[in-house]
């Protein structure tokens, strides 16, 4: 009996010196739906119900930038601050209208460790502080991924060693609202170590195509 959700989005951006981008945004999802837990007052049970909200609203600002330090380091980073509001008048006997300010940041940085041989290390980082989703409180999140890559002078061979989800962090969510108490821990057992070897054979040449306009990205 779910109603379809409708998503409205507005974004205003300004780019300065082809390096810095400032954005203001407003997102609203009418009848947004997600699964939420409810502890019954009549029996010892947790009811997991897919439910429609009145709306889910995000309003915020974001700043992103590219950076370079000589020839040995370059990357990009962003910082976002947003106001979340979730409203639902029909969730069992505990309607909710909850809001919270949340901060999100991330970066991708490449270190050129050596030119001859061609060795590079790339680090990806992501952080989000406490957030909400309906009656849920979501604990802060930190994720780190790293990749070390070697490439032969003729660019035919490359070898990459990657470690994803270095922190192996568990995601913690809980409900402490209107007499409800529910806690869930999603184990961070998704750490991956990847080894990739590529060898290009033949004289393959890529088709000619128009170059992508990267001017506003600072490249």
Report what the structure shows.
A hairpin with a 5-residue loop joins strand 11 and strand 12. The chain has 219 residues and is mostly beta strands. The chain is elongated, with a radius of gyration of 23 Å. The chain has no helices and 15 strands. The chain has one domain. The strands form three sheets. The chain has a nine-stranded antiparallel beta sheet with strand order 1-2-5-6-7-8-11-12-15, with no helix packed on it. It has a four-stranded antiparallel beta sheet with strand order 9-10-13-14, with no helix packed on it.
Which key phrases capture this entry?
mainly beta, nine-stranded antiparallel β-sheet, elongated, 219 residues, single chain
Give a quick rundown of the structure.
With 219 residues, the protein is an all-beta fold. Helix content is 0%, strand content 66%.
Q: Give the amount of beta strand, in percent.
A: over 45%
List the uncertain runs. Answer: none
Largest sheet, described in full? Answer: 9 strands, antiparallel
Q: Helical proportion?
A: under 10%
Can you tell me the number of structural domains? 1
Q: Structural class, please?
A: mainly beta
